[in-house]
Amino acid sequence: MSDNTAFDEDAAVFVISVAAQLAGMHPQTLRQYDRLGLVSPDRTAGRGRRYSSRDVAMLREVQRLSQDDGVNLAGIKRIMELETQVAALRHKVSELLTELDRVSAARDRVFAAAPSGDIISMPPGRRAPRSAFGQRTSLVVWRPE
Fold it and tell me: pTM for this one?
């Protein structure tokens, strides 16, 4: 692997014994967490579990919450569900802010009225073109209600 190649954290590459060793747990603990829905590894065609780096990090977080903070497994599952919801909501807020910026930028539209009566939509910050006689055309800012 070259230095420019990024490692995919979601690539399911670790068998259960390796994932358990990386997380500092017994493989049976990983099976229990899978049954409880705390960590859901990918499956091979033969139904063997394959863990990603993200799964191993999640296993370590489960262990930290359990051992250091004394949270039971039901509480850990709820915490993880809420963290997933928060991440989804943050993503949605980001999408909505982007859409709001787009709509706000398009909301104030500037039009130029030529002496001939033609209406031209102008990009914000641009001056209206001069007429054939060197006069500026009229500008109107339109704001929908």
Answer: 0.62
CB crowding 38-58: b at 16 or more within 10 Å, else e: bbebeeeeeeebbbbbebbeb
Contacts of residue 56, Cβ cutoff 8 Å, sequence gap at least 6:
14, 19, 22, 23
Which residue matches tokens 């398009």?
106
The tens place of each residue's pLDDT in the chain, 145 residues long, gives: 455 667 788 888 999 999 999 999 999 999 999 999 999 999 999 989 999 999 999 999 999 999 999 999 999 999 999 999 999 999 999 999 998 887 776 666 677 776 677 777 777 677 666 655 555 555 555 555 5
Q: How far, in Å, CA of 21 to CA of 28, rounded?
A: 12
Nearest in space to 14 (alpha carbons), one of 44, 36, 34, 38: 44
